[in-house]
Amino acid sequence: MKALSVIIPVLDEAATIDAALDRLQALRARGVELIVVDGGSSDGTPDRAAALADMVIGAPRGRAHQMNAGAAQASGRVLLFLHADTVLPAGADRIIAGVVSAGRQWGRFDVDIDGGHWMLPVIAAAMNRRSRFTGIATGDQAIFVTRAAFDAVGGYPPIALMEDIALSRALLRAHAPACLRARVHTSGRRWERHGVWRTIWLMWRLRAAYRLGADPAALARRYGYRP
C-alpha cells in the first residue's frame, strides 16, 4: 500500500498536462502514486498522460465522478485531490505525512492565484481566511484526506458542482481540518478570461444559491460547465 495517492481529474488538458505531471515526478520517485482520471477528453489528454502517471482511467464527466473513480483505484492510505492547473508546494508529501501522523484526518493548503490582475492575491487571501474560519475547503486548495475518513463519509457526493463544499461539510462533522499555511499555486486563467469582478459576483451567487438548496446541476450550467 502506498502512503499517498494523488488523483487528478482532467478534461481536454492536452496543452498543459505534460507540464502538470512533470512537476509531480519528484513525488512519484519517492513512491507517491499518481492517478489521472479523464472525463472524456477529445484532445488526446489520456495518451499524453500515460507515460507520466501510474494509472490513467476514464470516468463519467464531472469532478466528483472522476475523483471518486480515482479514489476507488487508489492504493494510498491518504488521498490528495489535485486540479491539473494547481501546483503543490515542495515536499507536499512530507508535509501531509507529518500532519496525518499527528492525528489529522483531512486538510488543505492555502492557495495563491497566479495571474496579472491585481485582485487575484486579494481573492486568494479571502479564500484562505474564509476556509480557516469555516473549515470549508475548495478544490483549488488541494484537499487531502485519509482513506478511512473518505470512505466513512461515502466519498464525494455525485453532484455537478460544489462537491468540494459538500465533502468538507461531511468531513467536518467528525474531524477538524488541517488548514496548512504552505501554499499551492493555481491558475487564474478562468478569472481573467471571464472577468475577475464578474467571476467574483457569479461565485458569490452560486454559493448562496447552493446554501439555499439550489440544484447543483443547474448551478453547474450557470457556472459554464458543458453537459
TrEMBL record:
Residue ranges of every copy of the Glycosyltransferase 2-like domain listed in the record: 5-100
Compartmental location: Cell membrane
Keyword hit for Cell membrane: yes
Main location: membrane
Pfam families: Glycos_transf_2
GO molecular function: glycosyltransferase activity
Top-level taxon of origin: Bacteria
UniProt keywords, alphabetically: Cell membrane, Glycosyltransferase, Membrane, Transferase
Protein name: Glycosyl transferase
